[in-house]
Amino acid sequence: MATFVLVPGFWLGAWAWERVTDRLREAGHQVHPVTLTGLAERAGEATPEVDVDTHTADVIAVIEDNDLHDVVLVAHSGATLPVTCAADRIPERLARVVYVDTAPLPSGMAQIDFHEPEERAAVERQIAEEGRGMFVPPPPFDPAADPDSLAGLSEEDLELLRSRATPEPVGAATQGPERPERAPDTPKTLISTTIPLEFVEKMVADGVPAFATLAGPEWTFQHLPTGHWPMFSRPRELADLLAAQAS
Fold first, then answer.
1. N vs C: which end of the chain shows fewer Cβ within 10 Å?
2. Could you tell me which residues are beta bridge partners of residue 105?
3. Residue 108: left if φ>0, alpha if ψ -120 to 50, beta else—which one?
4. So what's the pLDDT on residue 215?
5. Which helix (H) or strand (E) holds 223?
6. Which residues, including other chains, have CB under 8 Å from residue 152's CB and lie 6 or more apart?
7. Could you give the CA distance from residue 184 to residue 198 in angstroms, rounded to a whole number?
8. Is the pLDDT of residue 174 over 90?
9. Torsion angle defined by CA atoms of residues 221, 227, 233 and 234, in that order, rounded to the nearest 10 degrees
10. Is this structure's pTM higher than 0.90?
11. Exposure letters 204-229 (e unless 16+ CB within 10 A, then b)
12. pLDDT digits (tens, 9 = 90+) for 68-111
């Protein structure tokens, strides 16, 4: 049986993995869902100093404090940077890194840098006006405005996200940590949901910088057709895909 550490994306806590965690534990796996500093039940710990380094330390602490080895470390969405930085630092503890509808960013690139200029400007205005310069506010989770991302979610799922999402500390979005020139060759898997694998493969082949890190022989690719939140829209299938990465 495998050991999983599950790290949620922006605005979420360990609670977001509950359905996936239940499925994996029923199959006999050891599972550690993570709540990062400043989010969910740890919202009271949010300060202006919370950033990617803080969240990287959170991930490493879960693994080291529980003396975990041969870990399948899973990042969803905005968890890519802390998970990738943790994987760079403690490769000897890991069996595989899995990216769920996300991928590692190049060295020095922040999460906010991934946006096109117009979208980035809108996020920056939202941080200044709604987030008091300290937070990235949660989205409205409105399927009319964002149908592709929210595909597969029931109204109950959407209401759960709206009621439980917490503002993301701004440093998690704006810090672009430097990474080693040569990353560890830990096996890695991308589980794409909203991005067709054909598009990913083309971006890798074309050398697009944001996809360049996916070109190594340590990578495998899976597709789970649904929206950006598969832990809610297709939790059983996601859990089964994760379990398959440990075999």
1. C
2. none
3. left
4. 87
5. strand 219-223
6. 226, 227, 229, 230, 232, 233, 234
7. 26
8. yes
9. -20
10. yes
11. beeeeeebebbeeeebeebebebbbb
12. 999 999 999 999 999 999 999 999 999 999 999 999 998 999 99
